[in-house]
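Let's practice the habit of predicting before peeking. Look at the sequence and jot down your guess about where helices and strands might fall. Then scroll down.
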Amino acid sequence: MPRTIRPIRIIHTASLRALAASLLVFFPAAAFAARAPRPHTVPPDGLPAGLGFNVHGAASRQDWRAMAAAGAKFARLDFTWAQTEPKKGVYHFRPFDHAVSAMEACGLRPLFILDYGNPLFPPPETTRAGRNAYARWAAAAAAHFKGRHVVWEIWNEPNVGFWKGKGGLNSPRFADEYVALLKSTVHAMRSANPHCYILGGAVSCLWRGSFRWLNEALKEGMLRDGINALSVHPYGFGRPEMQISARQPGAHPGQGYSTLRKLMAKYGSPHFPVVATEVGYPISGRVTLREQAELCVRQYLVDEMCHVPLTIIYNWNARQASKFAIHGRPVYHALKTMMAQLRGFRYLRRLRVKDQLDYIIEFQNVAGDRRIVVWTVPKAAGAPQNRAVPNLISIPLGSRRGGPRVLSLMGVNIPPAITRGHLRLKLTAAPQYIDLAAR
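Done guessing? Here is the structure:
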């Protein structure tokens, strides 16, 4: 038996130009996303907005081309210390030279993770000698790739098990050790290549435990030590919408992007750039291939709402992370559709309707054309994606001639249902795209 469809909710307006005034009123729950100013402008050789993929192991030219065809701008790879400094003071960057050239040919920028220890040196987590050696290596890499528009990320998830320090997971001790490494490394890299783009943090999850680590790291000056942006990995939420604010349905107090901004404001940097350099949704008994596609697309859209200009999805093709894999799955085609629909458009606002479970967000390009993306989510925080109850909405079209173009998650045309100047549309967990400028 089909699920009961909620009653249609009519939103009244006289014309398309009145859409922003009458239909587009912010949810209180989305106040952070809607009202926060955008971070300061990044220099031209810095970090553009967009999509990226994490890559483990070897990738071919066909892989780079496929990523670029999906609209990706970045590929994030391990730049392993032990591999690239096999002897003290001897650097082996040639394999990465080839990778950078292949990515450049496809219009991709490399994001290299400077990880981890090297058995030739004391541990960089806990010793000054290790930190100094790590900094020398990072500086040599920054100098070698000068002018190649590489983005550098200092470590990966140093608040959890990837950090072999003397504290515990998410502990202030871990944070102190990491900031000490960050200070030495950024100074050395800036001396070797003043204009290199450096990310710090790479924080695993945005949970209460993560914020213990972040509080200490910010107190110790992580955002004042010369990095260009703070990187986060917003894993662990049942759905991306729970990351926006504690007031979102199903969200938990003290977690998510709004808590992050409040903590950053506490230390004087409320609008410091934040990027998501790793996040993904694995296939499981609760997440199907189709639902993985829905979740990853919505992750990008949520990041846009929260002024997080870069989202890197885990993972492209790793065997050890096959449940996350992107290549060749529906999620790839869904992300490709999304990037094609939003190319040249910037997030404008979230629209207000009666149900906070509904997401109707608007994008605009420089010509003033607008596109709307719509979906809904389950009421219960832990509910599977297929528990999102479909419902009908009505969007006024005013006196314009012709109907808008509506596309599904996978880019299939949906014949628009127009009644008395209103577009009637059924919302599901799968985002749909409405091109209001279509003729």
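How did you do? Confidence is low (pLDDT under 50) at residues 1-46.
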